[in-house]
């Protein structure tokens, strides 16, 4: 099993998807990416998730984020599942879905152990229950976020959007976001920025609660 950590380079791979064969890093290009995985096709919680991601895909596109799903089943199954998703959720997946029949991607990303075999055939959702992770990947291909969920709990993709907003603010303005931050709330100047540099970046000033805790309105 690969022990990936935040800051590591997201493993590159070639895979068949519902939108043709891709090489992952090349497909990402200079975009941010969200890779979210599923233990098996035709599972109830994942059905709701895939539909919701299709619904809010424009929000990701506004942020220069590409989304891609993965399920440990063949691409042909994904097409059948997509029809169910559209029927029950009102939205058909409008992003590629990886068919990980040889378990390669699941193992590369540490979601299944190396000894899991080389085929999805005969495996149940419970066998693959660890394949329930969201990865956020920056344009430099580094992993910025990993969240794993149990099969019984639907993921909160509004939270993923919130985290991406926070990380993009950090990348652009050298600010961090406090607990329960929402877009438009005050932010924190990162400790690496000196007061001298902060005066140039934030001419409107900031509130110093502690030398290491400087609060400033969210930059535009």
UniProtKB/TrEMBL annotation:
InterPro entries: AhpC/TSA, Peroxiredoxin_AhpC-typ, Peroxiredoxin_C, PRX_1cys, Thioredoxin-like_sf, Thioredoxin_domain. It comes from the Bacteria. Pfam families: 1-cysPrx_C, AhpC-TSA. Residues 4-169 form the Thioredoxin domain. Keywords: Antioxidant, Oxidoreductase, Peroxidase, Redox-active center. PANTHER family: MCG48959-RELATED, PEROXIREDOXIN-6. Belongs to the peroxiredoxin family. Prx6 subfamily. This is Peroxiredoxin.
